[in-house]
Amino acid sequence: MKVNPVKHFLDNDWKIYPAGGLTGEAFYACRDDEKLFLKRNSSPFLAVLSAEGIVPKLVWTKRLENGDVITAQQWIKGKILEPFQMKDERVANLLKKIHHSKPLLSMLHRLGKLPIFPEMLVSQLEEQFEPRLLGIPNIQKAFRYLKLNLTVAEYNEWAVCHGDVNHNNWMMTEKGSLYLIDWDHAFIGDPAIDLGPLLYWYIPEKDWQDWLSIYGLQLDESLRARMKWYVFYQTLYSIQLFYEKNKEDEYLFWIDYLNTLL
Questions:
Q1: Over the stretch 12-67, which tens digit does the pLDDT of each residue have?
Q2: Which is it for strands 178-180 and 170-173: parallel, antiparallel or unpaired?
Q3: Residue limits of the Aminoglycoside phosphotransferase domain (predicted)?
Q4: Hey, is 160 helix, strand or coil?
Q5: How far apart are CA 75 and CA 18, in angstroms?
Q6: Quick check: is 210 catalytic?
Q7: In the 8-state DSSP scheme, what is residue 46?
């Protein structure tokens, strides 16, 4: 995306800068002490996320002549959470709010979204996976694990899932408000697809039950098995994603991470 089309909606004294990220679709707009976060073709239910207080306030939405949609959100003063901060009870409370939000679920239904089942995820991921990576023993074992354990991942109490609860997607304001950003790939599914990676990656296992108690769940064998299944899936997904983005250090890290799961 070029910056000029965005400037059509802003006065000439606004300056626009790339905001980084894997997609290259996000920008900052600055004028004096004012600042906006701009994004092209953001999630169509951003307005509901904003109304629910899950993302920073939506300021305006504009459509370009080519059909692209630009959204502007309130710029917040804050920081991305550090990994150790993921144990904060505000993380558990916000994720619970998301997974129990009827407005979010209703919006995805209206957008034509259907629940995503484990067998669909495995099939789609394997079809898209880089053939050269499929020859790696750890990756072969991980796919085998997913296929052999499809039944343990069965669950039908659906929720809106973020799908990427990496600490870089959580932002805390200077006043202590917490947001979960980057909703481009949200879907309807088992909440364990968010809970599993968050607990495995950031919370010591001895503290899982305490964290889940804040969220509102008991750590039974069904939840434990489903979380593990989705951590395998998310790890393979990350390997493929970073391979496609030519992020060698990242996809090698996740290939190595499989050793801790197998």
A1: 678 787 776 555 577 878 887 778 888 876 767 899 999 999 999 998 888 877 77
A2: antiparallel
A3: 45-229
A4: strand
A5: 14
A6: no
A7: H
